[in-house]
Protein 1
Amino acid sequence: MAAVFWTPVLHEFLSTHRAAIIARAREKVAARPAPRATENELTSGIPLFLDQLTETLRVSNVSSAAMADSATEHGRRLLSLGFTVAQVVHDYGSVCLAVTELADETRAPITAAEFHIFNHCLDDAIAQAVTEYGRRREQAISDEGTERLGNLAHELRNALGAAILSFQTLKTGSVGMGGSTAGLLDRSLRRLAALVDSSVAQVRIEVGTRSPQRASLREIIEEIEVGAAMEASARGLTLTVTPVESGVDVRVDRQLLAAALTNLLQNAFKFTRANGHIALRTSPSEGRVRIEIEDECGGLPPGMADELFRPFEQHGTDRTGLGLGLSISRKSVEAEGGEIYVRELPGVGCVFTIDLPRV
């Protein structure tokens, strides 16, 4: 869809004052206490950042999709040249500040609407660069075959780093709470929570520190539903949870069962098609209870069902995570005397089932 915005004055300003903007931005970057500026950053990086912002601004007049593609490519290029995420965020900000100051000093006739578009482009450029960094870092970790603890440390660092930098950017007031940077902060915090929950569950399984107790399945599902509904909404998906009958009790470690269910839901959210639907339902019977999570991932390739529960296995285009979620779910359920399996709905999706003994 073609955008209705055009920024002729701002484009002309950036072209006419390119040298002055670069010089001013270099001064700001050189004076930055941390991260310390590098020679490559000052000589080559600053002009590149300005050119990329100008290009992102140009394609924003074509379509939002083109702007996103352009920002992703810019992030890929910067990071392939060795720029850190901190340098990307701070240098984009320095260039933007230099443009704003110079425009104010020269009293350039740039409208508020044009500056709004410019800030929107800055927001997307930063968010896409950080996202691309995280994706490439995760892929590099996987390719190098790093041990599990190293994987977890890098995952936590990436998610935490993205959250901190996003928050720092939001504090400057140059981008709004409804933009891409705020969305990146939200996703990073949720990712941190998921990593910590999965890691704690795995440690408890391996160390053998289970604390089984009689628990109401209804209460466990209701507790999980709150966070899951928020996650589904943030991803543009629909979640339906069928109420659990009262009196359906199981003897489990509540944290391990909650971790198993959360991992299955995260998997469903990750692979369900855009605007899709996920269903969580419970089917009690005499002596047993089945918990089913149905997604709309499109189905599985032949022979793939057995591979899903292997550790470090990842399928599909979304490679975020450690590839341990389903493996941890299986271990958690089996530790409770239950079993977990998956069946395919050809062309539609999958149904993951947890089968537990009732008290």
Protein 2
Amino acid sequence: MPHLLVTGGAGFIGSHTARRFLERGWHVTVYDNLSRVGSEYALNWLRSQPASANLSFVEADVRDYERLAPFVAEADAILHAAGQTAVTTSVVKPRPDFEANALGTFNVVEAARESLRPDHNPVIIYTSTNKVYGGMEETGVVLKEDHYGYTDLPQGVSESQPLDFHSPYGCSKGTGDQYVHDYARIYGLRTVVFRQSCIYGVWQFGTEDQGWLAHFTIAALLDLPLTIYGDGKQVRDVLYIDDLVDAYEAVIARADAVAGQIFNIGGGVQRAISLLDLIEMLEAMRGRPMQIAYDQWRPGDQRVYISDIRKANNLLGWQPKVDVQDGVRRLYEWAQEHRELLLSVRARVAGKIVGG
């Protein structure tokens, strides 16, 4: 039975990936320190799956090399999704951000290097971020009616875009990004970097700092006030979680052919929406206006980011399937079914922030 290790496996992306591979007949080890509010609910969701007999859980931290290394050594494939995920948190607490993202990622690839043998070279997929491209201030941006757009990038941002780490989060994720990439070149590890755009879907406990589409959807369902930083015309390409996991599967199926590659992964130009577009969808679903307030732009917030996904299509045979309207409706209906859970998570998040 093939074995998948998912660091951060009780998080949003990790838990969905773990579920898919359990369904495919893999043994899955979820490695997570359960520090994120709501992670225990995702873990319980995984344990309720029909194939959960093949699920193992390890409560541990990727910063602990001695604890991590044996699990890397026995995995056939690794999704490294553990880490600190919010730009704002990184600005306030840069050291733990660095340790979780840069050191944690180094530990994963170093453990893989030390465990290399003729019959063991695990596929490693790293969940990087479009933030490694920074503010992209040199890229021409225009306001087209009620949406920002690129002047010279009709297909979005390709992997050839120069790196420009911006914020401690950008630096820590970018450090991991480059270590993962270089360990393929120098040591022959079968690593692949995914520079991911906005991923969304069910079992995502979005907050103001991370997971904006889920955050907006939950606010709409719970009738909570929502603050937009900027004018709401900023645009992102969004990708439903099932489509992302399809891409992970495509990498593992083609591991030798795509080892060492970097892919920009998102919804692409066909799934690019503004904040105001999403609000319009949500207001139609709930049947009444939302409580919207506006505030100043946040530092480093891009007017537009859209992934050029043609490389992933060409090398992986991958293309998103879930359109935005369908994906948002799935998330909204899930939120309706889990209203009390979402209220509890929101209260705990607020208490954690207040308590430091």
